Amino acid sequence: MTQDELKAAVADAAINEITPHLEKDTVLGIGTGSTANLFIDRLGPLRDQFKGAVASSEASAERLQKLGIEVFELNQVGNVPFYIDGADEVNAHLHMIKGGGAALTREKIVAACAKHFICIADGSKYVAQLGHFPLPVEVIPMARSYVARELVKLGAEPVYRQGVVTDNGNHIIDCFNFMIDDPVAMEARINSIVGVVTNGLFAARGADVLLLGKADGVERTALR
Ligand SMILES: O=C[C@H](O)[C@H](O)[C@H](O)COP(=O)(O)O
């Protein structure tokens, strides 16, 4: 199976996971990226079975609206029962690296408001140790050089993601060659640097369910 076919398989599996729980007042939290897009596309035909969605990016909001799904502001909604999103890396504890598409901050906010975080990923995203994928850090623009120097002190090789401005008007630094031994501690440590908005480690609040696309089928892991 190709990577795209594996992504489609986990998008299907996520639809099967949430469909029994959809009610007229359900508002879903929706992630960002190519895997989340496949999930959004499958939500379109179900739009009459739930109320709407909160999106973690302008791109996902636009895609949802094009399918006739109402998009709400998170502040209007409060909590969401499910947050469904992809990942750049995920480990056995369902800690993740996210933000390859620069949507990490809004993703982390919506995930924080979700009762269940369902991670959908093709098998290439599964790793024993996080850090092969460069860890994204969203920074306030004027703090970019300062934050980069602080990231060097932590052992990272920070690279400014040229030309990228997040939905929040900020910049992204990617941390290369930065293998992470303790994702929970490192997430908190990087977030304590002044000027950091957040970083792409989703460890303090990892996923609750992982749907991992493999050649022999979708493997489901549930921690909670
Ligand atoms: O900012 C982007 C998000 O964190 C995505 O969920 C992540 O990059 C995975 O994207 P994809 O499904 O395209 O691999």
From TrEMBL:
Q: What is its EC number?
A: 5.3.1.6
SUPFAM superfamilies cross-referenced by the UniProt entry: D-ribose-5-phosphate isomerase (RpiA), lid domain, NagB/RpiA/CoA transferase-like
Q: Which residues bind substrate?
A: T32, G33, S34, T35, D85, G86, A87, D88, K98, G99, G100, G101, K125
Q: Which residues form a coiled coil?
A: none
Q: In which pathway does it act?
A: Carbohydrate degradation; pentose phosphate pathway; D-ribose 5-phosphate from D-ribulose 5-phosphate (non-oxidative stage): step 1/1
Pfam families in the cross-refs: Rib_5-P_isom_A (PF06026)
Cross-referenced Gene3D superfamilies, in alphabetical order? 3.30.70.260, 3.40.50.1360
Under catalytic activity, the entry for this protein gives:
aldehydo-D-ribose 5-phosphate = D-ribulose 5-phosphate
Alphabetical keyword list? Isomerase
| Entry-linked InterPro entries | NagB/RpiA_transferase-like, Ribose5P_isomerase_typA_subgr, Ribose5P_isomerase_type_A
- Residues of the active site are E107 (proton acceptor)
| Any one GO molecular-function label of the UniProt entry | isomerase activity
Family affiliation = Belongs to the ribose 5-phosphate isomerase family.
HAMAP family assigned? Rib_5P_isom_A
How does the record describe its quaternary structure? Homodimer.
Function of the protein: Catalyzes the reversible conversion of ribose-5-phosphate to ribulose 5-phosphate.
Name this polypeptide is given: Ribose-5-phosphate isomerase A
Q: Which organism is it from?
A: Vreelandella lutescens
